[in-house]
Specification:
This protein is mostly beta strands. Helix content is about 5%, strand content about 40%.
């Protein structure tokens, strides 16, 4: 039983490595390091018991040196025996929230059209962003939102034509449902 799995990754998301039991009949791989173009030592934190899974997160170096579908991934133990594993690809999203100090200009309301418009100025050079969160004390509304962008405030491109924000508040029943965030490309 291996108390700590440490092996060689022969280039390869997250590995679920099964702590193996190795019998004498198993033949070790022949000097695999010399046959592989790339390899990397890995280690598993903790002490998985035999048959338990151990999680190893692969880094950018592994992805950069592997085939696109990771089919060239191999895991061996210190003696060169193959270690069974399951490759789990996490298709989650990366999100980082930045709060920018912006200047709101031309905040206008068109009573005839029932439309409010304003310009959010990110300043010189702008900033990379893909979401707008409208912070408001208003309650019980639903609005479609169009977001446009410009570098020079004269030529505009629509970034999101069909955004939607809302707030439903029932003070007597202590209920509030709100989404005032709009994502755009």
């Amino acid at each position: 039983m291996l108390k700590r799995i440490s092996g060689i990754v022969g280039f390869f998301a997250i590995l679920a490595i099964i702590a193996p039991s190795i019998s004498v009949a198993d033949a070790p791989a022949v000097d695999q390091k010399s046959q592989w173009q790339y390899y990397k030592d890995i280690s598993v934190v903790g002490s998985p018991e035999e048959g338990e899974l151990a999680k190893v997160t692969l880094d950018q170096e592994v992805f950069g040196s592997s085939k696109k579908d990771l089919r060239d991934l191999r895991v061996v133990d210190r003696e060169g025996y193959d270690v069974p594993y399951k490759l789990i690809v996490d298709h989650g999203t990366f999100s980082k929230e930045n709060i920018y100090s912006v200047r709101v200009v031309n905040n206008t309301y068109d009573a005839a059209g029932g439309c409010n418009s304003f310009i959010v100025d990110f300043g010189q050079g702008g900033s990379l962003n893909s979401s707008l969160n409208v912070i408001t004390e208003s309650e019980n509304f639903k609005r479609t939102v169009e977001i446009s962008g410009s570098d020079d405030m004269s030529s505009w491109s629509v970034l999101k034509a069909d955004g939607y924000i809302y707030d439903y508040t029932e003070r007597a029943g202590d209920f509030k449902a709100q989404d005032t965030s709009v994502d755009y490309p």
